[in-house]
Design brief:
The protein is of the alpha/beta class and 311 residues long. The chain has helices at residues 46-51, 81-100, 111-114, 119-124, 137-140, 142-147, 160-169, 175-191, 200-207, 229-251, 263-276; strands spanning 3-7, 11-17, 22-29, 43-45, 58-65, 105-109, 256-262, 280-286, 300-304. It contains eleven helices and nine strands. Helix 8 packs antiparallel against helix 10 and helix 10 crosses helix 11 (263-276).
């Protein structure tokens, strides 16, 4: 048995469902954390670990943007070494997939496909308003309402948003889909989005100083008086992404699935798999349950390679 140190992840949780014969390796990312392992011969960055994958029966689900080819999205966390290295690795993977015409790599961050412009980008530029941000609320939420059949919008037949709807439609009768749809209806009713004359810039500007992000483990979340517009928007968009990820996990035929995503998404998906789908924990290392003291957490874990049967 050999231990290795892995930089670029704060925790690993391995879940297994015997009836499905499926094992999920969930690596937790803390995007801006740069407290990496001390350099030594047994240390790898997470991208190097993934590059060593040799098991043919494995799929990788990664929190990378799911984008149209002509998208001009500003990337956050550009100064984090592990994400810089990971994006170089991801670009190489995608190029190889394109050449081989087959791929077992699946991006899951569909939020930038759902929205014309990221809410974070608007919030970061509140003092420099742009005409690009003057999108009506009705237009801004057009894709979300389309995904849950709450408007009459019809996108281009071969667009990414049309593809995502086909994926979500697989789970239209599921409990999670129905409750998430209910939360979106409540959100619309609270802010009268379909009839509002405000723009998304105005809504984010007016609610910016009221933000008090409240993390709630699991899904679906609960809308209550403690959640303001920005907090609810974040939870709705994250909830859609997490539902999309779950559908992939169950639809993929691979016995081994590696998931690499931000802490909150990883924690929610782990919670759902254990609570509702009879997945059991096989192995846990690092920080996977709470990050209340996140300033003290190292972006480094020590893993027994006996459990990494995908390399």
């Amino acid at each position: 048995m050999t231990d290795i140190k892995i930089s670029g992840t704060i925790g690993l949780k391995i879940l297994h469902n015997t009836s499905l014969n499926k094992k999920i390796f969930i690596f937790y990312d803390d995007h801006s954390n740069t407290k990496y392992c001390n350099k030594n011969k047994s240390q790898l960055f997470i991208s190097e670990l993934f590059n060593n994958i040799s098991n043919n029966d494995i799929a990788m689900i990664l929190e990378e943007p799911f984008l149209e080819p002509d998208s001009k999205i500003k990337v956050l966390w550009d100064d984090s070494t592990h994400l810089f290295l990971f994006r170089k690795f991801y670009a190489k993977l995608i190029k190889r997939c394109s050449n081989e015409k087959i791929c077992k790599i699946f991006p899951i961050d569909i939020r930038l496909t759902i929205f014309d412009v990221s809410p974070d980008e608007i919030i970061f530029n509140l003092n420099e308003p742009s005409d690009y941000y003057n999108i009506s609320l009705k237009t801004y939420f057009e894709n979300i309402f389309y995904l849950f059949e709450l408007n009459n919008y019809i996108p281009k037949p071969h667009s990414l948003i049309a593809f995502i709807k086909k994926v979500l439609d697989v789970y239209k009768k599921s409990k999670f889909y129905k409750i998430l749809k209910k939360r979106i209806i409540e959100f619309n009713n609270k802010y009268d989005i379909l009839n509002s004359t405000k723009t998304i810039y105005e809504m984010l500007r007016d609610n910016h100083n009221k933000t008090n992000f409240i993390y709630e483990e699991g899904f679906p979340f609960i809308n209550n008086h403690n959640h303001n517009f920005i907090d609810q928007l974040d939870k709705i968009s994250s909830g859609i992404m997490e539902l999309y990820t779950l559908i992939l996990i169950f639809l993929l035929p691979n016995k081994n699935v590696v998931l690499y995503a931000g802490y909150y998404h990883s924690n929610n998906i782990s919670y759902i798999l254990k609570t509702y789908y009879n997945f059991k924990e096989l192995y846990v290392v690092g920080t996977t349950d709470n990050i209340d003291n996140y300033m003290q957490i190292e972006n480094c874990i020590t893993v027994n390679t006996e459990f990494l049967n995908f390399i």
